[in-house]
Amino acid sequence: MPDKHAIYGVHSFAFDSGSTLTSVDWEPRIVNQLFNAEDMSAAEYAQTFMEGYKSKGMVSTPDGHGGTRWEYTGTDGLKVEMENDKRTKILAVPKAAERKFD
């Protein structure tokens, strides 16, 4: 669990106790600026983002507020979450080889 958190404007970065970056959270305004995505719907943005990084297996689900959210968890230790307003979080998660079920 991150124990350090720095907020810069409308995006944030979280670090663990060893100062390793564990998550990035971009607000919609930042997403639009970073990816030149102002004219894209959230669904178009999510699809284009995942195609751009050659990631397959994104799942869309209702967000509980009448919209959609998208989620991708890779075996490489990254999880991507996108909201209906294009808010995007990228999180470090255990890699497939690091998971233990014993």
Describe the structure.
Helix content is 19%, strand content 35%. With 102 residues, the protein is of the alpha+beta class. The protein has one domain. Strands 1-2-3-7-6-5-4 form a seven-stranded antiparallel beta sheet. A hairpin with a 5-residue loop joins strand 4 and strand 5. The longest helix has 11 residues, at 42-52.
**Overall pLDDT level:** 85
Percent strand equals 35-45%
In total, how many domains does the architecture comprise?
A: 1
**C-alpha geometry:** globular
Cα end-to-end separation: 22 Å
Rg measurement, Å: 14 Å
Structure annotation, total helices:
2
Overall structural class, as computed from helix and strand content, comes to alpha+beta
Number-wise, the strands total 7
The main β sheet shows up as: 7 strands, antiparallel
| Order of secondary-structure elements | EEEHHEEEE
Q: Note poorly predicted spans.
A: 5-9
Major sheet: arrangement of strands: 1-2-3-7-6-5-4
Relative helix content? 10-25%
Notable characteristics:
seven-stranded antiparallel sheet; 7 strands; globular; alpha+beta
